[in-house]
Amino acid sequence: MNIAAKTNVLNLSEEEFVYPGNRACSGCGLSILYRIGLKALGRDCIFVVPPSCLTVMQGLYPIAASQMPILNGTFASTAAIATGVRAAMKRLGKKTQVVAWAGDGGTADIGIQALSGALERNEDIIYICYDNEAYMNTGVQRSGTTPQGGLTTTTPYTGKKEQGKNMPDIVAAHNPAYIATCSASYPLDFHDKLIKAKEISGLKYIHIQTPCPPGWGCEEQMTVKIGKAAIDCGLFDLFEIENGKKQLSEPSKKLLKKEKLDSVRHYLSMQTRFKALSEEQIVVMQERIDKKWDGYRQEFGAG
Amino acid sequence: MSEKLIDSGNNAAAMAVQLAAAEVIAAYPITPQTPLTEKLSELIAAGEMDAEYVAVESEHSALGVCIGAASAGVRAFTATSSNGLLYMSEQLHWAAGARLPMVMCVVNRGIGAPWSVWNDHQDAMSQRDAGWIQLFAKDHQEIVDITLKAFRLAELVHIPVMVNYDGYYLSHTYMPFELPDAAAVKEFLPAYEYAHALDPQKPESLNTVTLPDSRNDTNGVKQPGYMDIRHNLHQEMRLAMDVLEEIDADYQQRFGRGGAPILDPYCCEDAEYIVVAMGTIANQFRDVVDRLRQEDGLKVGVLALQVYRPFPTAKIAETLQSAKGVMVYEKGLSYGNQGALYADLKSALYPYPARPQLHNFIVGLGGRDIRTEDLCQTLKTACQQDDLSAPEQTDAPQWIGLQL
User: Fold this and answer.
1) Most-buried pick from B173, B336, B372, B392 (CB within 10 A)?
2) Cβ B215–A69 below 8 Å, yes or no?
């Protein structure tokens, strides 16, 4: 397995692909990802975007916040439209990278059929899911990836009863060329995984945990801290799966060396969306994390 | 060289799409469309057609792939029937709103529930307000000719075109037809160009959120709001009728067939009573017209409507205004009201003071046999029914061949 190139703030490209000023909320995790991600993808790209915060962030007609060619499409068909753009590029003899960029609802719920189809056909596209764990663009309704216990406007008072879908696992069952998880708190990790994905043919799926201050219930300046806390407590893991082989990325890999992970309680306490969680639910959540990491230690050793 | 063949309607459509050099084809199987896309995949796999065939997981995705390909500057084609068309519905509106030139064959079939695989027009009728141009073919030759003209029309007016033909009556029957010469088609149908094709060299953001009001761009130039964009689609769709006539004239000059791209009349010159219908039933009525003229001395004719959207309001009203009676026979309806075609026709004739008496017949839903004898009888009765009954009675659709 190739180790992704290491980009740091000193050697990160200074070229900007977004204009100053956009319609994202302050503290938006997506806007960090978008700005840095585009630096990795470069100019020779076409984006396919379903209804999402990204639609709004990219600008309202006739003013755009992005310098890239963007095709806005219907909610359920991101991966299908990207397939069509890719087929057209093939006909035109262009290597232009086609990037589908959707939210968790557009990926794990309404868009899952088209994505599954594109995965099965192994379309040569990069599919990015920025997962803010609810329908944020419509005002915080529960989605398939909303975690258990999470308060949303459609899971009020007691929080969501069911566990969230594990989208990377669902994608992995299709055995695509490349899967990576990322976090808005580690944009350079995302950057380097995109650089790597560009070199791989077939479908590349990147799933990004993306803190959302208004949706998660936190101050705007907490976005990066919360994303890091999710990783430090072992709840959300950064990894890559290449040719079926899984490997933890550095921010998660280093946890293998720790005797004991940070308590999930700290991560949960940083956001109001988890305030309805009972003590028992927190204990169960912690047990699940511990069990997952016991497995990781067996699988990967002590790092 | 042009080629004379005897083959199925679905294969005729496939060969027309091959001649039109569609480059991206995405489709999902549904009866009775399936053999059309099977034929296309076979032509591509055999190296007889140079195109990408994308076997998608749904009709929604089929049109999604075409939307992506057409937006990126490549000629795209799909085909479907019945519930498949309905599953695409959102994408139909999207393709039209995005002004994407593409062509889709709809092999008309009844809609479930309950399931029916047999022919009627409810699928196409249900999508009449999606912003697509809707053309109807009556035989295999028309499937070929209309499909080729459809590509040029779509690309000239930037509006997607739906080519409708009757499931089984045309899709699965064999008829002789002529396939035009490939080089001549290439001259008739220039290479696909899309002014706003996705291109990193000149990036554009397509189909972005558009506000109710017009708004200046960063150069201070006023750009349309949502309502203005919609108005333009409507206006340009109305003008598409003239464009189709020009295309047809050119086609006729090159290939020797054409002359009736919008309305195809049969024995209408002196007709006192005119039948209006779409698709194969209009051809069936030619026999009926011959019989009633010969046996009963009735001056009847049949007018085949080849273009349902845009509705040829003025043309059809001018053709029909001096008739004594007009009988609309159709294979679909707007439930709780009347036949959709009948209601459109009535509205087209309303401004003309000498408008004829109108009759609406619903026929052949879900493949119910359309007996020529029934058509003769109902038409004859309608012609002789000059005394006006209560308006609400004459205006109500009459169902032919019910087995209640």
Assistant:
1) B173
2) no
Q: What pLDDT does B388 receive?
A: 65
pLDDT in tens, A120-138: 999 999 999 999 999 999 9
Q: Is the pLDDT at A3 greater than 90, yes or no? A: no
Considering just the CA atoms, what is the radius of gyration of chain B in Å? Answer: 21
Q: Is the dihedral of CA B387, B392, B395, B398 positive or negative?
A: negative
Chain B residue nearest residue A123, CA to CA = B54
- Selected residues 221-250 of chain B with any CB under 8 Å from a CB in chain A: 223
Q: How many angstroms separate the CA atoms of B150 and B92, rounded?
A: 16
Residues within 8 A of B (CB atoms), A 28-47 only: 43-46
Query: Tokens 């309704």 label which residue?
Result: A141
CB contact under 8 A, B64 and A120: no
What tens digit of pLDDT does each residue of B165-216 get?
A: 999 999 999 999 999 999 999 999 999 988 899 999 999 999 999 999 999 9
Name the domain count of chain B: 2
Q: A52 in contact with B at a CB cutoff of 8 Å? A: no
Residue of B nearest to A53 (CA): B209
Closest Cα in chain A, distance from residue B97 (Å) = 11
Average pLDDT estimate for A211-237:
98
pTM over 0.95: yes
Residue ranges making up the domain that contains B84: 3-188
The last residue of one of the domains, among B188, B222, B249, is B188
- Architecture (CATH level 2) of domain A29-300: 3-Layer(aba) Sandwich (3.40)
State the pLDDT at residue B389.
72
